[in-house]
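re: ur question from earlier - yeah i can do the single chain one, its not a big deal. heres the input i used so u can compare w yours
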Amino acid sequence: MFTSIAAYRFVAIDDPAAVVARVRALAEELALLGTVLVADEGINLFLAGEAGDVQVFLARLGEDPRFHALEAKLSRSQTRPFARLKVKRKPEIISFRREGASPLDGRAPAVAPRDLARWIGQGHDDAGRRLVLLDTRNREEVGHGSFAGALTLPIDSFTALPGALEAHRDALADATVVGFCTGGIRCEKAVNWMRGAGYPHALQLEGGILGWFEAMGDFGYEGSCFVFDERIALDPALGAAADANGR
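and the output i got, formated as tokens:
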């Protein structure tokens, strides 16, 4: 049985090359495979290995104060979900290419899964404002599953989101818009940008879909969640989805 972790943290990194070297050495020492991206704005990682080795990796990475608060979402699989290790320096840990999106300048407000579940049940937020769930992922990911009734966009990359969302600007003017994605990283940037671009009631779903699965299971969600490894998609129990080899 292998343990997979998905984690990210937006934090200023003034020595990304050094972090890349340290993370690569640590992952190699513990025989972890997957992908780690490091940028001036933080770290984004998907890794898998033996459960004990994964915990050692997180503990040792957390010795660096910049990564002490990194929260990892765990899932398990019978087979190793990654074929190799890639640790790279990038301009962004998730490419968006928009000013005013970086959480380093201030994190957008978030809603916890249980609060959002209550809003879904009552059909509006606690202020009585209409609720819209916004899927910030691409169309391939959405094809595996999404929240029931969510607004989805015909995009193939995250950088296309602002242009695709423009057609919905007037319709969203009076709504509380909750952006969501796989683990929260795209929501962080998208909602930060939205709040400065004329969507004042935009919020992010804390922990993304994987955090939702941990807290709420399949409530309000239809299908599975695409993940970036050989499992293809996870079900609400955080196991490899039955549709992983074809929908």
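The longest strand covers residues 2-10. not sure if urs matches, ping me
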